[in-house]
Write a structure and sequence with these properties.
By secondary structure, the chain is α+β, with helices and mostly antiparallel strands. 41% of the residues lie in helices and 33% in strands. The protein starts with a helix and ends with a strand.
Length: 156
Amino acid sequence: MCKTRFLAVLGSFLAVASTCFSQSSEQPDAVFHVEGMPVEVAEVMAHQLEAWNAADLVGFMKGYWESDSLRFVGASGATRGHRATLERYIKGYPDAQAMGKLTFVNQEWISLGEEAGWLLGSWHLDKEGLEDAQGMYTLLWRKLKGRWVIVADHSS
């Protein structure tokens, strides 16, 4: 009787756990979404995470505004423009080992209207064989031509 009850409880737990995991992979907003944040922003971040973890910096950069006016600020200074930001990433992360495995934790969305907002969060790179890296970000998002993109990134 106890064994049957245990198996029933275990089965219920596994069913709930598999539902949670499948929702996370199918619904990126469940992983990245914070109160008030547009679902589309979470979807962009899910694509960025997938690209980064596949060592695809060009794909990762699709979340950024393709403009010479894009701003990126990091520990080594400020960069202006999409191409320059991509080149900065390529220089800093020349291969998959240097890129590691990225995770994001979004903490707060500060709405600036229906088509803009600040996103505060943290990032972590798990680098096998190298020292891990982590920091914080503040991302300025705008909805331009019907698409949410990062127009300014301050990561440290």
